[in-house]
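SEQUENCE-TO-STRUCTURE ENTRY
===========================

Backbone structure tokens: a row of integers, each naming the local backbone shape at its residue.

Task: work out the structure tokens from the sequence, keeping to the layout shown below.
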Amino acid sequence: MIFWYILAGVCGGIIGGMGMGGGTLLIPILTLFLGIDQRSAQAINLVAFIPMAIVVCIINAKRKNLDYKSILKVVIPALPTGILTAIAVGKINSKTLSVLFAVFLICLGSIMFVASMYKCTRAYICKCKEEYSYND
């Protein structure tokens, strides 16, 4: 059984390292395949996020890819919002939390799909305009 937990962590780490939240994969793996309740899976995800976030910050700081003013603009509202959300999650039962997380993933997937289709369509149209001018 420990193998499956390690595999779930590796999958979440790989996806997290690619820039997409590793929890998008880790939480469903933990809940659907390993039988962990939603609240515990989200707690595990948050704990796993800490070392990944530290490594990413160090790498980006060395590459001088951090905009510290923008970081503050995100962190300042994120801290109280995160605390309030954690308190709210503590009052929601695990089944409701699972449904809310599923709705979140569906919305996120839909937004990403539409954005990808838009970018692909726009790139295709631009390429066609370059290949064929209106004067031909």
